[in-house]
Amino acid sequence: xPYVSLNPATGELVQTFxxxxxxxxxDALENTRRAWQAWRRSGLSQRAEVLHRAAAxxxxxxxxxxxxxxxxxxxxxxxxxxxxxxxxxxxxxxxxHAAHFIADELIETDAAxxxxxxxxLGTVLAVMPWNFPFWxxxxxxxxxxxxxxxxxxxxxxxxxxxxxxxEAVFRSAGLPDHxxxxxxxxxxxxxxxxxxxRIQAVTFTGSEAAGRRVAAEAGxxxxxxxxxxxxxxxxxxxxxxxxxxxxxxxxxxxxxxxxQSCIAAKxxxxxxxxxxxxxxxxxxxxxxxxxGDPMKESTQIGPMARLDLRDELHxxxxxxISQGAQPLLGCKPDARTGAYYxxxxxxFVTPKNRAYHEELFGPVAIVIRAQDxxxxxxxxxxxxxxxxxxxxxxxxxxxESLSREIEAGCCFINGQVKSDPRLPFGGxxxxxxxxxxxxxxxxxxxxxxxxxxx
Length: 454
Known about the structure:
By secondary structure, the chain is an alpha/beta fold. The protein folds into two domains: 3-229 and 429-453, Aldehyde Dehydrogenase, Chain A, domain 1 (3-Layer(aba) Sandwich), CATH 3.40.605; 233-413, Aldehyde Dehydrogenase, Chain A, domain 2 (3-Layer(aba) Sandwich). Helices cover 41% and strands 17% of the residues. The strands form four sheets. Strands 12-13-14-11-10-15-16 form a seven-stranded mixed beta sheet, sandwiched between helices. A six-stranded mixed beta sheet has the order 7-6-5-8-9-17, sandwiched between helices. The longest helix is centred in the first third of the chain and has 25 residues, at 77-101. It is globular. The N and C termini lie far apart (58 Å).
């Protein structure tokens, strides 16, 4: 099956790419293995220079890369600019801090000297999604390369131009040949790559179902893996919250990236005292969103990435309505050409509705009305997912206390959930395991090795 680049705003076929045969794949993996033998012995200063140059390449070509992202997956252009800038930030962050994160650690024991060291594992396979086609790759590749690993990328088949552009960034930055390679392979070839002895680890971001398959293959072959899967993040609004601020942030969080983000606020869980007023503000602000051509800086909502994704979202919405959820706004595809879906709100969602249990990966907010604060916490945890969550309250101490009850990899108080190179990122339950970013992220793909000296 070829890689197909479609413009989701117009349906236009931009370009197709043939998938590699097994021989070309084998040659790429062998070239990467050989390149890694030298890179593993390189100094951290050499690696840091490459990462700093990658950041400079990204910023120097920001407009071109942003336009490519928008054309290939549909997010508003201003968000694509921010994505490219975040990739540069991630490269600079690891270039600055990796030496500290993976420095030898002396440990006092009965030995004359004993310490823990962090040598690289080898080649890491990165299987990445289409929704943040640059950032998802860089947040995995920057720490892996700084640790002395090589990286081979299997990107989503709908963003082939972005995949090749990321490889070109590293090439322009002076990364030695074959240390970062985009594998233009079909999905049914991934299992064979995981099993290949030249691959030492796997990092995967994507759907729960695909993540389970990757984890099973990695486990079968005893390969280390990190999984960042779906999310159904709760956005809990307490009675003392600043409702105007919280509702503005609710819109930003839910509809960023056209609603296609794992850490978007997906379930707005409201206590009775503020529920009606919050919903009024939410509806008013969602209705004001500007939907249209994602290449225009003024556009806030562009198309979804593909028509099949939009159709599946609409099935989830229509089934939920048939089960008793109330459509408050939108809840149908937009009439214009392209994979557009109207910014939508489903109110009075209950456990009887499909939307209560599933991740809605698109521009649809669901409102769940809790009986009280403790019921809100119960509802927040009543999901198989556990990626992120947020609590909105003027009583910071109380909100911090409640945050310890949220079953998720992160909890933000009075702020939109986001990834930050300085903080570990990942989930629990069906949202995956392992961590990206911060020092925890770079240590996922190293050998935590003890050295004991008499």
